[in-house]
Amino acid sequence: AIFFGLVCGIATGTLSYYLLALRLNPAKEILTAIKRGQFYVVYQPVVDATTLRMTGLEVLMRWRHPVAGEIPPDAFIQFAEAQQLIVPLTRHLFSLIERDAPQLQAVLPVGAKFGINIAPGHLHAASFKEDMRKFNAALPPNHFQLVLEITERDMLKEQEANSLFEWLHQEGFEIAIDDFGTGHSALIYLEHFTMDYLKIDRGFVNAIGTETVTSPVLDAVLTLARRLNMSTVAEGVETPEQAAWLREHGVNFLQGYWISRPLTLDEFIQWRPTAHS
Length: 277
Ligand code: C2E
Ligand code: CA
Ligand code: CA
Ligand code: CA
Prior knowledge:
Elements: H1 2-8, H2 15-19, H3 26-36, E1 39-48, E2 54-65, E3 69-71, H4 73-82, H5 86-107, E4 112-117, H6 120-123, H7 128-138, E5 144-151, H8 158-170, E6 174-180, H9 186-192, E7 197-200, H10 202-207, H11 216-227, E8 231-234, H12 240-248, E9 253-254, H13 265-270
Parallel strand pairs: 2-4, 4-5, 5-6, 6-7, 7-8, 8-9
Antiparallel strand pairs: 1-2, 1-9, 2-3
C-alpha cells in the first residue's frame, strides 16, 4: 500500500491509501464492512486522577478488513463523513455498543461515564436527535452517563450549538470538548456553552517530562477549565511522571496507555485498575 500510495500520490493514512492498492472502492467497502461485521469496538478505561479508580471509558471504533488488515479510525471516519456514510456507520457503532451493554453494565458502577466520539457530520444530520434518543433508550436504563465527545475544530455555529447542547443536556447527555488545544474557536465556545468536560489533547501531555518547562498553554487551559467549572480529562497519559504532574495540577481524570490501552470487551471485563500501579 505504501508503494502504491507513493506512485499514485495518495495521501498517507487516508482510506484510499489503505484500499486503493487493492482496487477496492472505499465507499462500497464501508457498507460491505457494516454488513459483514468487520467493524468492532474497543473500550479504553478512564480513571480518577487521584484514586486511579475507573470512572468510565471511551469507545473507539476499529475496522479489521479481510485484505487490507487493520484500518485506523483516523482513516475511515473522515472518509465516511465525506461520503455521507457517517450516519449509517455511527448507527452501526451504536448497535455494537448495545450488544455489549449488558456485559459492560456488570463491571461498571452506576453513573459510569461512557464516552462516545461524535463526528461533526452526524451532529449536523437531520436524524441526529432521533439517533441519540434511540441509542439511549436501547441501553440499560440509568446506568451509564453518556458523554458525547466533540472536537473543537468541528464545532457548530453559535446559534445551532446553543440549542443542540441544551437539548442534549435535557435528554441527559453530557458533552466533552475533545482534543482541546488543537483547534481555533475554543475560547468562545468555552465562554458561551455549557460543556461538561474538557479533554486535553495528547500533544500537551506528551510534552510533560520531556521539556524543561511545561507548556504555558497547558497551565492556562487548566486554570481556565477550573474557572469555568469544567472537569478535565488528560488523554495519552503514558508515564507515571505525566500522571503525577497532571494530578498535582488538578486534572480530574486520566486516560492513556499508562492506565490501559483500548481493550476488547473480553479484556475490558477482566481489567482491574490496580493492575498497573
Ligand atoms: P480521539 O477521540 O482523540 O481518541 C483517542 C486516541 O488516542 C485513540 O486513537 C486512542 O487509541 C489513542 N490513545 C489512547 N491513549 C493513548 C496513549 O497513551 N498514547 C497514544 N499515543 N495514543 C493513545 P484511535 O483509536 O486510533 O482513534 C483516533 C481518532 O479516531 C479518535 O481520536 C477519534 O477522533 C476518531 N474515532 C475513533 N473511534 C471513533 C468513533 O467511533 N466515532 C468517531 N466519530 N470517531 C472515532
Ligand atoms: Ca475522543
Ligand atoms: Ca481526543
Ligand atoms: Ca484525535
